[in-house]
Amino acid sequence: MMWFGVDYYPEHWPEERWPLDAKMMREAGMNTVRLAEFAWALLEPEDGLYDFAWLDRAIEVLTREGIQIILGTPTAAAPKWLMDKYPDMYPVDIYGLTKGFGTRRHYCPNNKIYRQYSVLIARRMAEHYKDHKHIVAWQIDNEFGGACYCQSCLQAFRLWVRNKYGTIDKLNKEWGTVFWSHTYRHWDEIILPAYSSSDGFSQNAGAQQLLSTPYNHNPGLLLDYQRFFSDATAEYQRLQIEEIRACTNLPITHNLMGHFSELDYFDLARDLDVVCWDNYPNNMWGKSSYTQVSMAHDLMRGLKNKNFWMMEQQSGPCGWHMMGDTPEPGQLRLWTYQAVAHGAEAMVYFRWRSCTVGIEQYWHGILDHDGIGRRRYREIKAIGAEISALSGLLVGSDNVSSAALIKSYDNFWSHRGQPHNVNFNYNGLLDAYYSAVAKQHVNLDVTSVESDFSKYKLVMMPAFNLVTEAIAAKCEAYVEQGGALVLTFRSGTRTWNNQMTTLTVPGLFKQLAGVELEEFDSVNFGRTVRVQSAFGEGTASVWCDVLKTDGAEAIATYASHYYAGEAAVTVNSFGKGRVYYVGCDLDEAALGALTELIVKKEGIPTTLSVPTNGLEAIEKVKDGQAFLMLLNHNNEHVECPLNGIYEDAMNGTKVKDRITVAPYGVHVLLKR
Ligand code: GAL
Q1: Which residue among 117, 128, 259, 279 is least packed, with the fewest CB closer than 10 Å?
Q2: How far is the CA of 276 from the centre of ligand 1 (A)?
Q3: What pLDDT, on a 0 to 100 scale, did the predictor assign at position 212?
Q4: 3-class DSSP state for residue 657?
Q5: Pocket test for ligand 1, best of 8, 360, 362, 366 (most atoms within 8 A of CB)
Q6: Which whole-number Å values give the CA distances from 614 to 48, 151, 223, 576, in the listed order?
Q7: Would you give the end-to-end CA distance of the chain in angstroms?
């Protein structure tokens, strides 16, 4: 059965309304709700005084309508009494300023007392609900987030580096503290990379605002701090998991945020039974392209190489101070099936009814503030009926991917600290490669370098700059046995602890790629460099490696600047496979053409034979039954050519050779 439901906050509404909400949910085909993840102040109104009565009553009302419950631990919103009692729990920013009360996530995950209180509330909830037959899963906290520089973090970081390096000499060597007299003599001299004398003035500065970067610390320290904070968050999560696990075997999850990269999601996911995530494609902060959303879904699947759940799927116009676009008719259905196509086995919409209070007054749910179900409710009700009929096919189905894109959080952090060029962005480069390949109707996994490469015909590792010998050896073995590997500029430039390699670049990948860098050009101030090749002309506007081939063959060369005529993109045969080294960024059209050449040459299967703009075709299989999910992201009809004969799983009609897909339309086609 597929979980189909909504995030519900009964505590925001009069109790008399609950039965109507539950009835309307059931009528919309809903079988689950997530509850309680911000309700700590109600669950424990005073220190040690627990009150589950209101939640019990809400659960009772919901379950009477056949709705099952996913319970969230409320630790993302600690009550005022707790914070007043232990103000050290507040997170501290890079300037040493305390981030105070008034929103949420106002805690440091390293604070020992916060950990104790979190464990206690999780334990109390788990004990109270352990025999409840309608609880079906648990969610830990809500959307773990960014950094903290408090005293608890400092102490914990000192311990973390001590465990990692063993001796202070080793740490000094790995971080290269000889530079600018940073040598540490004792563990208790170790610092957090907080505000320092060379830092700029904008804490949130990233690659786009380099001139005010806060990332001026020693790169080894910066990277280890990110790793430490990510580990600390996973440890905090584990403490709650252990409490719940002691009471129940139900699945335990945490709602992640797709492309958010401050924490190593592979590590967080390891301890979870199932990954879930929150997807808002169109809100006040921006609008995601459909490939960005698909890539996020594929990454969420790739975290455990396993299907995932949607815990918050956008269901209305949303924002905190302003609102993004209202989802058009058909879009909620399209987003739902997009998630399902990429591996979602639960669809929980955010939120049931738009709230009249709090900063999320504008974050519209399925119902408006007046509680009346209008178009969005009707659409979701129709999806509910449809999806329940299909759930036997969809739940437990596998995505069929012959290509993988490798994401590395360590590499993200390293690049983010020093992005090489003001316009370089690691996640942006991954996005460009994913989109170029996905638009050719190649289905991808987005996963970690630790995944098994042997199941893929193509592995892409853009800008993988931190490398170990083990990773290089794994890549060599993969290519040797016939795999195709794509590397790009900035690959292999650093050691795992963020030192520049002393090997000739691309370092540990040099032999595999059959090239070496003669020099490079960081492209700035609006300059562009022309590139020419058998796959057409293009431009680079971020980075150009000037390559000397050593066994590899050039498939593109530069056509401007002092390195005109030099190799820009190469291919090297290695064992039974091939390595593509892409020495520069490429505009969208040129990257499309290059990846098309690679896809053809490597014989990577495509799900449609003719590229069709804005149409996704995702191949899946369930118990030997192959099926294709077609998703039209265009607001107009699309003619889709098909290979072979299919049966439309929604209406039983036979489909041969082609199908017309309606604006924002979806088809689930069984291979016949
Ligand atoms: C999510 C969060 C929800 C809600 C929503 C709208 O990121 O998990 O609790 O806040 O955003 O802001």
Answers
A1: 128
A2: 14
A3: 46
A4: strand
A5: 360
A6: 54, 50, 38, 35
A7: 24
**Catalytic residue ranges:** 143, 312
Nearest alpha-carbon partner for 36 in 160, 142, 184: 142
In angstroms, the CA 172 to CA 366 distance is 55
Query: How confident is the model at residue 204, as a pLDDT?
Result: 47
Query: pLDDT tens across 94-146, in order?
Result: 889 999 999 999 999 999 999 999 999 999 999 999 999 999 999 999 999 98
CA distance 116 to 111: 9
Q: Which of these, 327, 341, 7, lies nearest to 142 by C-alpha position?
A: 7
Residue 191: other Cβ atoms inside 10 A: 16
With H, G, I as helix, E, B as strand and everything else as coil, classify residue 573.
strand
- Is CATH 3.40.50.880 what the domain over 403-601 is classified as, yes or no? yes
Residues facing 460 on adjacent strands: 405, 486
Q: Enter the CATH code of domain 3-88+98-147+243-396.
A: 3.20.20.80
The reported pLDDT for the residue numbered 602 is 98
Task: Report cis status (omega within 30 of 0) of the bond before 376.
Answer: no
Torsion of CA 328, 334, 335, 338, to 10 degrees: -160
DSSP letter string, 17-68: GHHHHHHHHHHTT--EEEE-TT-HHHHSSBTTB---HHHHHHHHHHHHTT-E
Three-state secondary structure call for residue 581: strand
Q: Write out pLDDT tens, residues 340-378.
A: 999 999 999 999 999 999 999 999 999 999 999 999 999
Please give the number of the atom of ligand 1 that sits closest to the Cα of 359: 12
Architecture of domain 615-671: Sandwich (2.60)
CB under 6 Å to ligand 1: residues?
Answer: 142-143, 255, 278, 312, 350, 360, 363
Place of tokens 């490429």: 586
Nearest by Cα to 432 from 586, 556, 584: 586
